[in-house]
Amino acid sequence: MAFNLIFAFCKNDIMKKDIKAPVAEKQLTKLEKHGDIREDNYFWMRLTDEQKNAEVKDNQTQKVYDYLNAENDFYDKMTVETNDFQEQLFQEMKGRIKEDDESVPYKSNGYFYITRYEKGQQYPIFSRKKESLEAKEEIMFNVNDEAKGHEYFQLGGLSISPNNKLTTFAVDTVSRRQYIIQVKNLESGEIYSDKIENTTGGSVWANDNKTLFYTKKDPVTLRSSQIYKHILGTDTKDDVLVFEEEDETFGTFVTKTKSKKYLVIGSYNTVSSEYQVLEADKPNGNFKVIHPRERNLEYDIAHYEDHFYIKTNKDGATNFKLMKTPEKKTSKENWVDVIPHREDTLFEDFSIFKEYLVLEERNEGLNKIRIKRWDNTLDYYLPFEEETYSADVYSNPEFDTNVIRYSYNSMTTPSSIIDFNMKDQSKNIKKEQEVLGGRFDKKNYVSKRIWVTTRDGEKVVVSIVHHIDTKIDENTPVLQYAYGSYGYTIPDGFSTTRLSLLDRGFVYALAHIRGSQYLGREWYEDGKMLKKKNTFTDFIDCSKYLIDNGYTSPKHLYAMGGSAGGLLMGAIVNMNPELYNGIIAAVPFVDVISTMLDDSIPLTTGEYDEWGNPNDKEYYDYIKSYSPYDQVVAKEYPNMLITTGLHDSQVQYWEPAKWVAKLREVKTDSNMLFLHTNMEAGHGGASGRFDALKELAEEYTFFLMLEEKLEK
Fold first, then answer.
1. CB neighbourhood size of 435 (10 A)
2. In angstroms, rounded to a whole number, what is the distance separating the alpha carbons of residues 505 and 502?
3. Between the CA of residue 487 and those of 178, 458, 510, 609, what are the distances in Å?
4. What's the rounded Cα separation, in Å, for the pair 379 and 357?
5. Which segments of 544-672 are extended strands (E)?
6. Which DSSP symbol is given to 431?
7. Between the CA of residue 462 and those of 260, 389, 480, 589, what are the distances in Å?
8. 459 exposed, middle or buried (CB, 10 Å; 0-12, 13-18, 19+)?
9. What is the DSSP letter of 26?
């Protein structure tokens, strides 16, 4: 492998010995719970939003900023020789992207909607055309213009009024996912004075074209807790509180059924849900509960004709089933089965059309799309032939149609958007992802699934992709990736950016560990709460399998994960650091016990059914036993790059900052340890498409740099 970095390494290695890593000040804070005392030398790094946003920084704030900037400066100096290569990698990734790209238009209520990008521009343009794709384009928003003057900018929450004349839009310029909702007249271009702050960004129109329902966040915890009603043109101070979610473990949202008949308020936590509905023609009426919340009863609803259709785990349906109930009799004793529960198939989602029911399922880890006529004259699955692929029902707002739109891609096949005629079973590929640069040929890459037997006898799937010319042996660099929380299954999908690793001899290995729902709902249940450690041991057992079966060796094995996947990284480097040469932990959730004990931190109370509530001693002891920050001890750790965002509302920046400070204090090796903080962004990183590529180029360079050092 030739990365053009060797000369710079040789030249600068001696000079780097004079560059000292930052040493964070130690201020002992003793934290007591259940008679147990934890000593935290870096608790002082936590700042409030008020401190961060103050024009004049107090002493503590300045000290935190100085530390984060010192870590950034250390990272920059220690990796300065890779700058040219980072730029090369960025240009390479950018060069594969069709810059002047646009989405496949979708039709809704008489208009075709399009999202497109122009060459050299960071942000999208949202537009529409009336009735025909040949009609004149109406630009609703050019986000490149809106984003000028902002380091971070997100525009979303577009909701078109029933008469097509107005749209809501929502803006976040801080990256804490606190959006300001406004309204734009699409005919005149006027932006109305209505300005609704501290929302989730989403909003729904009643059928009168003047009444809006939206969700407010708690200003401290950021929990989605209140549904308000706003009348266009009135002062937002007069908005009516329609519903308040008083249970601090629940969040709430508002939406509308595809039939457009009902406004819907949903309440949810990890194990329970509840829905209320109101006819959209009667926005001043009262919402009616479909069925009151019950612990461990989950359900989602859709409306069709005179029934509500319900995806639920009722009656012990662990993998969920589909039921229905009359509009006027919605309590659960009236629910009847439509698609029964199946032990071997996870029922993930469904879409309703006038003549068809479309089911999204997962069997043995693979996506299935099932088409079923309401009159039962047809019932079949779409055929998919590859072993590692992802297929999802796409945007289908139209109700009276025979055509369903879905997306398909695999680890070797770029994404396609396909229109499938459910009646005659013909398909029309509307768009295939273009991979520019002239070098990509899918025949040059191979993928497969391997089944790894874990220490407790379960079988974990690892999806693997690599270049056909890559020699697989103990010297092969392997990047192992996983998430493993919240039941989220990472799809076996295509990535143009990943080609930069595959073309340089890396194998990419995606481990479908417990905590996801890859093998059904029980796969998730076995990776949460008091079974959370299965997530970590599954990943480690997959790593050992790759080493023992000649795919790689500890000198060439790398791992990466973000957010809850960053927790995974923190756990594995405490448990088996000797297995890995390098780790990237992005926005990592690593101070688990302190965060879960602080109900003022965003998301904490809603997470109790994922991690457990440490106010209960059993959960306190269990969480502490794996919490990466609490389990750091004096030993050798792999090379590590840890990233965060100052304004992150999901995982506060001080978790990775404290973790790095503690690692620096006690680790016994001389391996690289970097903390890189984006001082302008939050959980999702940079907002512009090219800025995000630059961040990824930095991360890939870290792994390639480590491989280059081995070859030096």
1. 18
2. 5
3. 25, 17, 16, 12
4. 9
5. 557-562, 582-586, 639-645
6. E
7. 42, 13, 9, 24
8. exposed
9. P
Q: If you write DSSP's letter for every residue of 353-404 in order, what string do you get?
A: -SSEEEEEEEETTEEEEEEEETTSS-EEE-----SSEEEEE-----SS-SEE
Q: Is 581 helix (H, G, I), strand (E, B) or coil?
A: coil
The SS3 assignment for 329 reads coil
246-256 per-residue burial string, b: 16 or more CB within 10 A, e: under 16: eebbbbbbbbb
pLDDT at residue 6, as a whole number: 43
Indicate the pLDDT class of residue 149, thresholds 50, 70 and 90.
Answer: confident
- Annotated active-site residue in 175, 648, 649, 676: 648
Choose the catalytic residue: 159, 407, 500, 563: 563
Give the helix ranges, DSSP H, for 43-137: 49-53, 59-78, 83-95
Alpha helices in 116-253 (DSSP H): 143-146
Cβ 356 vs Cβ 404: under 8 Å: yes
User: Catalytic annotation on 563?
Assistant: yes
Amino acid identity of residue 633, one-letter, is V
Query: Is it the case that residue 611 has pLDDT exceeding 60?
Result: yes
Please give the C-alpha separations between residue 176 and each of 51, 453, 595, in angstroms, as whole numbers.
Answer: 15, 40, 17
Answer yes or no: are the C-beta atoms of 415 and 390 closer than 8 Å: no
| Size of the chain, expressed as the number of residues it contains | 712
User: Residue 705: what residue type?
Assistant: M
Beta carbons within 8 Å of 265's beta carbon, 6+ residues apart: 213, 227, 242, 243, 252, 253, 254, 275, 276, 277, 278, 287
Q: Tell me how far apart the alpha carbons of residues 572 and 557 are, in angstroms, rounded to a whole number.
A: 13
Half-sphere CA count of 29, side-chain side, radius 13 A: 11
Judging by beta carbons within 10 Å of its beta carbon (0-12, 13-18, 19+), is residue 224 exposed, middle or buried?
buried
Among 267, 649, 683, 687, the one annotated catalytic: 683
| Chain segment 247-273, per-residue pLDDT in tens | 988 999 999 999 999 999 999 998 999
Position 190, amino acid? E
Structure tokens at 200: 């989730």
Q: Which amino acid is at 377?
A: T
Whole-structure pTM value: 0.90
Residues 6+ apart with CB under 8 A from 330: 288, 289, 290, 291, 308
Environment class of 50 (CB within 10 Å of its CB; exposed 0-12, middle 13-18, buried 19+): exposed
Cα dist from 209 to 71, 79, 168, 206, whole Å: 52, 55, 11, 6
Predicted pLDDT of residue 346: 97
The Cα-based distances of 108 to 134, 159, 298, 392 in angstroms read 16, 11, 30, 19
- Give how far Cα 36 sits from Cα of 33, 617, 620, Å: 5, 10, 10
Report the Cα–Cα distance between both ends of the chain, in Å, rounded.
Answer: 11
Euclidean distance between CA atoms 502 and 136, whole angstroms: 43
Q: Which residue has the tokens 């729902």?
A: 517
What stretch of H or E contains 429?
strand 427-432
Backbone phi, then psi, for 172, in 5-degree steps? -130, 120
In the residue annotation, 648 being an active-site residue is answered as: yes
| Average confidence score pLDDT of the chain | 93
